[in-house]
Every structure is written in structure tokens, then in C-alpha cells.
Specification:
- By secondary structure, this protein is an alpha/beta fold.
- It folds into two domains: 231 residues, Rossmann fold; 89 residues, no CATH class.
- It is 40% helix and 17% strand.
- A hairpin with a 2-residue loop joins β1 and β2.
Length: 347
Amino acid sequence: MRTFIYIFTLIFLGFISNAQPTKASFNFEFEGVVLNGVLNIPETTTPKGIVLIVHGSGKTNAVAQDWYADVRNTMINAGYATYMWDKMGCGASQGTFDYNQAVSNSALEVIAAIRTLQKEKVPGAKTIGLWGISRAGWINPIVINQYKDIAFWISVSGVDDKENFNYLFEENLKIQGVPKDTIALLSKELKEGARLSYEGKSFETYMKATQNLRKNEFLQRFNNHTDVTEKGYYDYQKKFMQEEFDQETGLQIYVKDFDTILSNVNCPVLALFGEKDKNVDWQKTKVLYQKTLGKNTDLAVVSFPNANHNLFQCETGGFYEFQDHNLPWIRPEDFLKTMAQWLNEKL
């Protein structure tokens, strides 16, 4: 997720199961730099395929910190190998991390990983599945459209075609008990600020139009208590003006013709949502999936009542709930069981 203010989506690692698959370092090259990854392969059986773990937004240190260990071990126990890597400039991967990497470019990165796995004849590489969370909901359908041999896609907390920070902002203000009229004012300024930036308006005009927004406690914390600078505004504006923007909603369009791209997906899809997701409007995405994926492929949709954006058990689903209240990072047990059952039944 991005907006005209830099946004960092938290990606959390899961608990580690008792399974002990073979673990090996496996790197691939993309745009002239080497990306560091980890390959997990079942010890006692030839893998049915390889599931690529595609990250959401933000920096990663996934290999060193063993991210998504519970998810990967679920795949291993279902007979699949898994492959996960760190983004450019993160962990042991070379290059420079780019918060604003285009999702189309991220899709090419995934395809580069697939081709390397197949070139090196890694066991299971003839059958490739995709698992992805949040931002990966833009990336993986593009991959499937461009690389026709994807066997399946597991979408976690998927997205629609547009920027979702407005939803995140409003929902978290509701959790804080902010009055409706105040939320409406702040939301209006958020959209107006995006519109002014996209239309090439001056820094002074933007600052005047977002006076209340920039004082908001949640937004200040979200941006590490640093205000937008004139240089930062104009630097981002240059990129922002080149992207797609929906004037009616005041939201950036991340993937043009996203409905068509989803409709072109022809592999089985399992879509998983947390019903207390306050980052992404999961019900809106669910309807979109049913309207597009549901017409042309085998689509299964499952939601979990007390799960947040990262599919951890929660009380409110608020962005800072786990940090502020020291809650345990535990996924609903049915989340892992659902994936395992779906893999065993469908593939």
C-alpha cells in the first residue's frame, strides 16, 4: 500500500510448527542484482510442486527471521516445497529497496524467481503455486496473466484495484472513537491532498488543504511523526502524476483493468480474509473476486471472524493493536487447516 505520504504496512511472522523440512539457500538474479531466498523441501517425499511466498508492502527480513514459518510448514506437510526471498536491499539481497516499486515490476520479479527455479531443475519446479498477502493481491494476478503455467493461487487479505489507505485511516479512527464529523473532515482532506498532488498543485496549496489532516495523531504516528517536506512532496509528485488516478473516488489505481486481469485467471484460487481487517475492505474485495474469478475458475472464499489483516487473532483489528496491548501473535487454527485441506482436495 502506498499513498502520497509514505506508508509502511506491517508484515508479521508466524509461529514455527514441529515440521523440519530441508532448508537451503537459493538465490536468483533480477535486474542485475542477486536476491537472497530460502528453499524448503519435504525431507521424505518428492514435492508435488513449489509454492512461492509473495510478500505484502514494506521492507523484509524474511529469510533471517523465518517469516511465515507456520504457513510454509503447512505447505510442506501438504507435500509442497516453498520458496521465499527478501526484497531488494533487504536482508542479504543486493540492490536498493524501493517503497514505491510498481506492482507490475514486482510481478516480473516473481517470474524471474520461477524461471530460475525451473532452469536449475529444483524438485517440484514443474508445478508452481503462489501464496501472497495484501499487496501480493495485485502482484499475483499479473503473474498469472503473464506466466500461463501457474497451478494455483492462495490469496490472503486480497485487494481491489485502488489505494486502500483511506479505508485503513477511517477504520482506525473509528476504533479510536473519533466522532463521525471529524472522520469525514479528515477523510475529505486526505482525498483532496491526493487530488492536488496528482494535478500538480504547489506544496503551499497542499499544505493549506491538509491542515487538520497533518495534525491527526494516528497519521503522525503512522509517518513516524515527520511532516511532509517540500522536497519530499515534489519528488513524490513527479512519480504520482505518472500513475493512474480515479478522480471520482480520489484514489490511486494500482492496476489498470484489474477486473479483466482477475477474470483472466484460470487456475484454482483460495481467498482467505480476516473479518476484522482494518487495513483492506475485505468485503469489497470478496465481491470483486466473486464477480471476476468466480465466473471463470474454481474459487473458494473463507473468512475468519476474529482475524485481522495479517490473519492473526485479534480484538479490534486496529493497526497498532498488537504493539499497544502486547497481544500474542496467534493465527486462527482454522486458517492453516483450511489451506492444508484445500491443497489436499483440489490439487
